[in-house]
Each structure stands twice: as C-alpha cells, then as structure tokens.
Amino acid sequence: QVQLVESGGGLVQAGGSLRLSCAASGRTASSYAMGWFRQAAGKEREFVAAISWSGGNTYYANSVKGRFAISRDNAKNTVYLQMNSLKPEDTAVYYCKVVTTVDDYWGQGTQVTVSS
Q: E strands, the chain, where?
C-alpha cells in the first residue's frame, strides 16, 4: 500500500506562485508514475500534470501548459508541482496520485485558492 501526504497549498493572489509537494511512503518500489489532479467546487476532477517515475517524462493539461511544472525527487519519493502565473480559475483542491503496477493511490488533497 502507498500513502501520499500533500503540502504547500494556500491562498495566493492572481499572478502569484505556489509549489505543492507530495511525499509517497509505503510500498513505492513498483510506482511508475505520479501526477496531480484538481477539483474545483461543483466540478469534476480533472487532470493537471503527470510524470513518469524513472524516465521523468512529463505531461500537462492544456490549461496549465507554460505555467505549471511537475518534477520529482526519486530519492525522496516526492513529486512537486510548481505553479506560476496563477489564475482564479486555478482555485481547486489539488490531489496527488501515484500509479503502481497493481493499483492507484490518491492523496487527501490540498486546497489552492487564487484571489483576483
């Protein structure tokens, strides 16, 4: 089983930056990808960014390309999401996700609020 602990959420002004962290623990040896999703109030959860664990290949939703950057530290089993040029529409609960060979795991979510 894998446990995910997220941090870094908060309240920022439009145009500001924030960095989210997601630390994975447990049986992480079989992990091959981690990513971020978000869910705004009243909306369905949507994909934000992902990264392959070994190769570091990255993927982004069109809405965040050029503004967000995902990265990982294999030694720390941690994935980061650097969010720049934040917009009010980025306001959501951000969830970390890890994909393993047997199952997917989700973090508890961290709130990001961007004020206009």
A: 2-7, 10-13, 18-26, 31-39, 46-52, 58-60, 68-73, 78-83, 92-100, 104-106, 110-115
